[in-house]
Amino acid sequence: MDVCMRGRKVMWLFLAALPLWPQLAPARAIAVYAPPPTYPHEARARKEMGSGVVIVTIDPATGNVTTAVMASSTGSKILDQAALTAFRQWRFRPGTVKKVRIPIHFTLSNVPHSAAEVRVLNALPMEQLLAPLLGKGNVVNAPIPVYPQHPLGMRKQGRGVYEIHVNQTGMVTEVKILKSSGDPTFDDVTVNTLRQWRLRHGPKIIELPLVFVLTPDNFRVWIQ
Q1: Which of 23, 96, 141, 189 has the most other CB atoms within 10 Å of its CB?
Q2: What phi, psi does 24 have (nearest 5°)?
Q3: What is the pLDDT of residues 98-151, one digit of tens each?
Q4: How many helices (H) and strands (E) does the chain have?
Q5: Are residue 89 and residue 8 in the same domain, yes or no?
Q6: What CATH number did the domain enclosing 174 receive?
């Protein structure tokens, strides 16, 4: 939505955790309803344990799961069925993802699905994700920040807010850091990346809040 402020058109992209891809993302960042699997009494009695991977396919229009299949079995039909039953109930934010990979670990002490490992396999194009906010067909190029090479074992996270100024021709003329992420490297990469954004027309001022998490195995970023 465009809002007039001090004679300027300002557009806020305050979305409820829109994931950017390809990535591993926290389940809460992409799912609005995510009940965990239950541990069937029969499997507990038999001391059955195992780990597997579920692939869910989502209808982008509704966010509902249309299919759930075991990409890797837990080794137990009972546990596989418990996982599929739970993940078929998941609901995702409409217009964000098409396919998601979810690992599942059944142990006798707990049944966590590893939220940190939920992987977006197939997300909608950035142009389509931003269309409701920036106008259908208005996004020409919108790359996402990528953290540069870093020392092995590095862990960082932060949240910054960036302001993108777009002129009438759709070119970015300025990117401001309204709130630093706390990490100068991420701020620099983000500013340089957002300068590459192109729209078909403007003028617009876009306020973009970004969250990033860097682990030894992965880098992910999403709008929040």
Answers
A1: 96
A2: -100, 140
A3: 888 888 888 876 544 444 345 555 556 666 667 767 777 888 888 888 887 766
A4: 5, 16
A5: no
A6: 3.30.2420.10
